[in-house]
Design brief:
There is one protein chain. By secondary structure, this protein is an alpha+beta fold. The protein folds into 2 domains: 2-281, Orthogonal Bundle (2-methylcitrate dehydratase PrpD), CATH 1.10.4100.10; 288-424, 2-Layer Sandwich (60s Ribosomal Protein L30, Chain: A), CATH 3.30.1330. It has 20 helices and 10 strands. The protein has a 4-stranded mixed sheet with strand order 8-7-9-10. A two-stranded antiparallel sheet has the order 1-6. Helix 1 crosses helix 8 (186-198) and helix 4 (90-102) packs antiparallel against helix 5 (122-132). Keywords: Lyase, Tricarboxylic acid cycle.
């Protein structure tokens, strides 16, 4: 890996385009280096993973609305939309599929200086690939780039510190991935990356306070913008530049300011793109920092015994967990039994209480209003708080994969004064966890979430096609979707009419 120093530059300063971070990213995208076998295998796993969570969310209102918008834009050749037959304009397919993938917050993750769901790259890159008649090998190359760029940006540039939403790293990565997919020249990818970043910087209010459906829409909007940015760049249109380093650019006014310096790692020329191997998926449908606490609660349940005897629970954890999904956020909504699913998903206090009571987690039942409003749950929930522990924060930011951790130490104080303590550094499904996910677990997750949604024959067809992605020929990528019956679609809540 090569480390690039990135900082604000004055307009009068000599700063050749070839030194811009967007150009360096474009060079990585344009590099014809081969994709390693283990990277390609993990790409297949994540294609399956995305379809799993899309199946589980296909009848939810935000997903149905996004799908309805896409269906208003039929197009040829076009791209597919989860759940329905037909082909649609690729940017709208990316929008609909990106929303389906993100709605339940249940797909892969990478956490470092910033946080991300790099699987958000798949919908826009796949939509562009289907529209252009690309091969499976082309798709894998594009996805390897999308993952690489997003993860490398996440390693180096913190957005949330400045209240900028993490999809600001997704627009550029998806644009770069589409550039690799289509074999575009460096200059074209450079312009697309700049446009994608410029149009996808927004505040983090979408993940603060009363969290709405925009939490799912934000990454799908970034994917849609990436597709449109590539289209404009291919037509010869340019972007604000230098987009990161400019005197009035992203670093100067949205991030660390004119004096800030970032060290961004990117693969060198001829170096394979392997970043996807550093990411990890979710066993539970909850914010990633809740994965280990869910497993910890499941493990501690028998030791505690009668939960009525709990006096208080303190989760000692990282800065991020405490301030974003813990009591450090000072969000009263995180203790509201009538809060939205999106808000409950960002309350580790609620999640730990339910996991402790139920001994596990379910993507629907654990968020049901009647579950959140249960009196004994509300009572336990309000006994839980979080506290930042410098050691957990250090491990969260560690660059050593064997030391990096997203867990917590739980101290449960009983009414008789006894204290039960346990800790878990990584989730059971993490590569270093008790039960790491491999192909078998990705397929099992798909089967569980597709049950009652996708007919068995269609499940089998999709899984067969996904596992043959490297050998799919031009025009065959439409196999990487699924359809559901009219009876399943009829479960969708009644939708309000829109503009289209």
């Amino acid at each position: 890996m090569q480390t690039h120093t990135v900082r604000t530059r004055r307009s009068a300063e000599s700063f050749p385009r070839e030194e811009h971070l967007a150009w360096k990213i474009a060079e990585v995208a344009a590099d014809p280096v081969a994709v390693p076998d283990d990277t390609a295998e993990m790409v297949i796993n994540r294609i399956i993973d995305n379809a799993s969570v899309a199946a589980a969310s296909v009848t939810r209102r935000p997903v149905a609305n996004a799908r309805a918008q896409a269906l208003a834009h039929p197009y040829g050749p076009g791209a597919t939309v989860f759940g329905v037959p037909g082909r649609f304009s690729p940017e709208w397919a990316a929008w609909a599929n990106g929303t389906a993938v993100r709605e339940l917050d249940f797909h892969d993750t990478f956490l470092a200086a910033e946080y991300s769901h790099p699987g958000d790259n798949i919908p826009p890159i796949l939509a562009a690939a289907q529209h252009r008649g690309s091969t499976g090998a082309d798709l894998i190359r594009g996805l390897a780039t999308g993952y690489e760029i997003q993860i490398d940006l996440v390693r180096a540039i913190c957005l949330h510190e400045h209240k900028i939403d993490h999809v600001a790293h997704l627009g550029p990565s998806a644009a770069a991935g589409i550039g690799t997919l289509l074999g575009l020249p460096t200059d074209t990818v450079y312009q697309a990356v700049g446009q994608a970043l410029h149009t996808t910087t927004a505040t983090r209010q979408s993940r603060k306070g009363e969290i709405s459906s925009w939490k799912a829409y934000a990454p799908s909007f970034a994917g849609k913008m990436a597709v449109e940015s590539v289209d404009r760049a291919m037509r010869g249109e340019g972007a604000p530049s230098p987009i990161w380093e400019g005197e009035d650019g992203v670093i100067a006014w949205l991030l660390g300011g004119p004096e800030a310096v970032y060290e961004v790692p990117l693969p060198g020329a001829g170096e394979a793109k392997r970043a996807i191997l550093d990411s990890y998926t979710k066993e539970h449908s909850a914010e990633y920092q809740s994965q280990a606490p869910i497993d910890l609660a499941r493990r501690m349940r028998e030791r505690v015994g009668d939960l009525e005897q709990i006096e208080k629970i303190v989760l000692h954890t990282s800065h991020h967990t405490h301030y974003v999904i813990g009591t450090g956020s000072n969000d009263p909504q995180k203790f509201d039994p009538h809060a939205s699913r999106e808000t409950l998903d960002h309350s580790v206090m609620y999640i730990f209480a339910v996991a402790l009571q139920d001994g596990g987690w379910h993507h629907e039942r654990s968020y049901a209003p009647e579950r959140a409003q249960r009196p004994d749950t509300v009572e336990l929930w309000n006994k839980i708080s979080t506290a930042e522990d410098p050691e957990w924060t250090r491990r969260y930011h560690s660059t050593d994969p064997d030391e990096k951790a997203f867990g917590a130490r739980a101290e449960i104080t009983l009414k008789n004064g006894a204290i039960i303590v346990d800790e878990l550094a990584v989730a059971d499904a993490h590569p270093l966890g008790a039960r790491p996910f491999a192909r078998e677990q990705y397929i099992e997750k798909f089967r569980i979430l597709a049950d009652g949604v996708i007919e068995k024959a269609e499940q089998d067809r999709f899984l067969d096609s996904a596992q043959r992605t490297p050998s799919l020929g031009a025009g065959e990528l439409d196999q990487l979707t699924f359809t559901v019956s009219d009876e399943v679609l009829a479960r969708t809540p009644k939708l309000n009419p829109g503009l289209f």
